[in-house]
């Protein structure tokens, strides 16, 4: 496998995670009543859309083809969130808990890729920027969770 293809494969994995996260947040908007939570989820979805655009640009710069949709696993997680919220007595708290789990899974993928030392500096910087934003979102989601529980 060529070096550029290997990098693109790793970036595509992150791209799919970001598609999944964006769709998850858009799904969460439909399952909450709180305008504050709705706006919070809209901001997170917009952020993840921007991350996806940046990753697509990097992949294209290496002459590879970016993925164009999320994963089956992501779709299953969103369906689980919808089902769980339908049967939960405090669905907003449940949705926020699931969002935190999804963000923590994304953070793990970013951390694993950042540990690799064979990435160009521009990609390292991009991944670090995304990772820090995801960590800030997790911290913010935990605060939101405490406020509604």
CATH topology: Ferritin
Count helical runs: 5
CATH class: Mainly Alpha
- List the domain count as a whole number: 1
What fraction strand?
under 5%
Structural class: mainly alpha
Considering the chains and any ligands shown, give keywords for the structure.
mainly alpha; Ferritin; 5 helices; single chain; 149 residues; elongated
Notes on the protein architecture:
With 149 residues, the protein is mostly helical. The protein starts with a helix and ends with a helix. It is built from five helices and no strands. It is elongated.
Quick overview of this protein structure:
The protein has 149 residues and is mostly helical.
Blueprint (SSEs and pairs):
Layout: H1 3-29, H2 35-61, H3 72-87, H4 91-115, H5 121-148
Helix pairs in contact: 1-2, 1-3, 1-4, 2-5, 3-4, 4-5
């Amino acid at each position: 496998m060529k070096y550029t293809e290997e990098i693109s494969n790793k970036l595509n994995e992150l791209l799919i995670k970001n598609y999944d996260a964006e769709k998850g947040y858009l799904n969460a908007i439909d399952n909450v009543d709180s305008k504050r939570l709705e706006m919070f989820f809209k901001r997170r979805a917009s952020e993840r859309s921007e991350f996806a655009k940046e990753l697509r640009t990097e992949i294209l710069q290496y002459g590879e083809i970016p993925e164009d949709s999320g994963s089956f696993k992501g779709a299953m997680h969103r369906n689980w969130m919808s089902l769980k919220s339908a049967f939960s007595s405090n669905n907003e708290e449940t949705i926020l808990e699931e969002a935190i789990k999804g963000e923590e899974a994304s953070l793990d993928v970013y951390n694993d890729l950042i540990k690799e030392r064979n990435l160009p500096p521009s990609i390292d910087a991009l991944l670090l920027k995304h990772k820090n934003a995801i960590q800030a979102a997790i911290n913010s989601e935990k605060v939101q969770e405490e406020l509604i529980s």
